[in-house]
Design a protein that fits this description.
The chain has four helices and three strands. The protein is mainly α.
Length: 97
């Protein structure tokens, strides 16, 4: 099992974000590997590069699966995409006055 797959399983079973040190400890335990700085650093780097994981701040990591999905292209308004919607266009026309 790859280290990132083990870390993913740990978080999935935990069901909530974990401190990175606890995540690394549990991942290494599952893999049957002793904690050595180089090994832990490599796993941490792999977690950073794996799109399944999401940094939550304060050394906490979770899974992207836990985030609500953003509306699709057809479901999003112009405002959601950083543009403006029809109401904004009407406001601009009124201001031209």
């Amino acid at each position: 099992m790859r280290a990132t797959d083990a870390a993913y399983t740990v978080l999935k079973e935990q069901g909530q974000p974990m401190d990175v040190q606890d995540l690394l400890d549990e991942t290494l335990l599952r893999l049957g590997i002793d904690r050595e700085p180089k090994v832990a650093a490599r796993i941490y780097t792999d977690i950073n590069l794996d799109s399944r994981f999401q940094y939550r701040g304060g050394s906490m990591w979770g899974l992207k699966d836990w985030q609500p999905r953003a509306p699709g292209r057809h479901g999003a308004t112009g405002r959601d995409r950083g543009g403006y919607d029809d109401d904004d266009a009407e406001d601009l026309e009124e201001d031209d006055g």
